[in-house]
Specification:
This is FAD-binding PCMH-type domain-containing protein. Keywords: FAD, Flavoprotein, Glycoprotein, Signal. GO terms for molecular function: FAD binding; oxidoreductase activity. Residues 1-24 form the signal peptide. This protein is an alpha+beta fold. It has 17 helices and 18 strands. The chain has helices at 2-22, 24-30, 33-41, 46-49, 61-67, 91-104, 156-166, 182-187, 195-198, 220-223, 225-231, 269-279, 318-328, 344-351, 387-399, 450-465, 493-519, and strands spanning 53-54, 84-86, 107-111, 128-132, 139-142, 147-151, 170-171, 205-211, 217-218, 241-248, 250-251, 256-264, 287-297, 304-314, 339-342, 374-381, 404-410, 433-440. The chain has a seven-stranded antiparallel sheet. A five-stranded antiparallel sheet has the order 5-6-10-8-9. It is globular, with a radius of gyration of 24 Å.
Length: 534
């Protein structure tokens, strides 16, 4: 027995030595040798762990970091990268990573899908370890119980595809971007085409598997209702590490009806959109009509117009939808010819800009889905914007160089049934719609060229122009569309409230701060705009 233990110890020492020597260049430049040694010393299988840990000296380091950088404006030499990337396949390595990072003074960034709007899941201005959940993406669907357990590294596309392989009459009420990671998405609330019928994604979370700052693995019962409340919309990575979510699946018909149509200023777009503000949040909650607003040239002329794309999805048949729209919104002009009855999983393809005939397996192909290259801001509207205000916004869009987009999702329905404090996500009763404002950097080598900087300045000026027309006290913003322009100060409540109350409102933000102080009093899990400890 002693001989066996001695042999194992010698083997560990030899492998650790060889492992560290092979990374000598990296260790000397990044000073991560202490962290690597810690990770190795805590591992029972050095050979296996060596295949899951990467430093800049590894040929795989840069491709692994780059593959899930979903906003390509961060793919530039000046972006700070991790000292170490850890790609765990099981929970013990995550526990080891938390222990070693704390011991040796590294911060941790947690990446499930890589869609953080400010790149905060894979970059930092301090030495950090990036936990990449790409190897932890199992999905277990229970049709009979209408539930699914989903590991943090799975994407929404993988979840939808898995559900669709099991049943056509259940789905999950989340977003339409297939490559968004489940782990962080639910942590910010999450919304999609079913929000008017079923609320946010976080409203439909039943349980979680969660690791705290001490490496304890908790479920809803053992973590308590306060922490379970906080991680569903309060930014779960501020409190620990979500390993998996248990989701409540919702019923959908075998076929839903979708339609897409466009209206320009010359076709009465302003008046139609003005009425849309009154109709879309109050109509039958089975109907969701998203809009996208663009400025574009008219044909081959030098004159610009505004085009509004109306994208509708109805939980029912065309025969039921058309009379509803005829009564409530005839100005929109939806006809049978532009309606298509398809499976719910196919509607995700359509809303991502793909034909409904596209094989649904593409939802699982992370490399087949185009990445973003943009800067964004969000707002919530509680009072219809008058025609005069819309025309000001249209004029501003026309001044843009065709890099801008407004994406608008109506609320109401089920969203108004929840109180602002049901979970941390507070944008509920009274919200008519949410606006995502974005500019892209297409055609530019980076987001720092003169053209890119002009686009960012334009976005900020649009944000200022819209101030009279959006929510106030606070001016609400969506935490999953994080925006560092709002501020990052966290030395005291006055500083943090500048951005925190916009994401969560005062009561929720103060409760999140109290919970954070209890579960992570030394603020190990931190990043810009994470829940602070004072």
């Amino acid at each position: 027995m002693k001989k066996s233990q001695l042999s194992s110890s010698v083997l560990l020492m030899v492998l650790s030595f060889l492992f560290c020597v092979s990374w000598a260049t990296s260790l000397s430049s990044s000073s991560s040798g202490d962290l690597i040694s810690c990770l190795l010393s805590k591992s029972k299988n050095v050979t296996t762990i060596s295949q899951l840990i990467f430093t800049p000296v590894n040929a795989s380091f840069l491709p692994i970091w780059q593959v899930a950088v979903q906003n390509t404006r961060f793919l530039k030499p000046s972006t700070r990268r991790p000292s170490v990337i850890v790609t765990p396949m099981e929970e013990t390595l995550i526990q080891t990573c938390v222990y070693c990072a704390k011991k040796h003074g590294y911060e941790i960034r947690i990446r499930s899908g890589g869609h953080d709007y400010e790149g905060l899941s894979y970059t930092a201005d301090v030495p950090f370890v990036m936990l990449d959940f790409t190897n932890m993406r199992s999905i277990d669907v229970d049709v009979a119980k209408r539930t699914a357990w989903v590991q943090a590294g799975a994407t929404l596309g993988e979840l939808y595809y898995k559900i669709s392989r099991e049943t056509d009459t259940l789905y999950f009420p989340a977003g339409v971007c297939p490559t968004v990671g489940v782990g962080g998405y639910m942590g910010g609330g999450g919304y999609g085409n079913l929000l008017r019928k079923y609320g946010t994604a976080a409203d439909n979370v039943l349980d979680a598997r969660f690791m705290d700052v001490d490496g304890n693995i908790l479920d809803r019962k053992s973590m308590g209702e306060d922490l379970f409340w906080a991680i569903r919309g309060g930014g779960s990575s501020s409190f620990g590490i979500v390993l998996a979510w248990k989701l409540s699946l919702v019923p959908v018909p075998k076929k839903v009806t979708v339609f897409i149509l466009n209206k320009t200023l010359e076709q009465g777009a302003t008046e139609i959109f003005h009425k849309y503000q009154y109709v879309a949040p109050n109509i039958d909650r089975n109907l969701h009509i998203r809009t996208q607003v663009f400025a574009e040239y008219i044909g081959n002329t030098t004159k610009k117009t505004i085009r509004i794309m109306f994208e509708g999805i109805y939980q029912g048949t065309t025969d039921t939808l058309l009379p509803l729209l005829s009564r409530k919104f005839p100005e929109l002009g939806v006809t049978r010819e532009i309606c298509e009855e398809i499976k719910m999983v196919q509607s995700t393809l359509v809303f991502w800009g793909l034909p409904s005939s596209t094989p649904t397996q593409i939802l699982t192909n992370r490399s087949a889905i185009a990445k973003l290259n943009n800067k964004s801001k969000s707002d919530y509207v509680r009072t219809p914007i008058p025609v005069s205000g819309l025309r000001k916004i249209w004029r501003k869009l026309i001044q843009n160089d065709e890099s801008a987009l407004l994406m608008i999702n109506p609320f109401g329905g089920r969203m108004a049934d929840f109180s602002e404090t049901a979970i941390p996500y507070p944008h509920r009763a009274g919200v008519l719609f949410q606006i995502l404002k974005t500019v892209n950097f297409n055609g530019q080598p980076s987001d720092t060229t003169p053209t890119s900087l002009r686009r960012i300045a334009w976005l900020r000026s649009l944000d200022a122009l819209m101030t009279p027309y959006v929510s106030n006290n606070p001016r609400e913003a969506y935490s999953n569309y994080n925006d560092l322009d709002l501020g990052v100060g966290s030395a005291n409540y006055e500083e943090a409230s500048v951005w925190g109350e916009r994401y969560w409102k005062r009561d929720n933000f103060k409760k999140l701060i109290r919970i954070k102080a209890k579960v992570d009093p030394h603020n190990f899990f931190r990043r810009p705009q994470s829940i602070p400890v004072f």
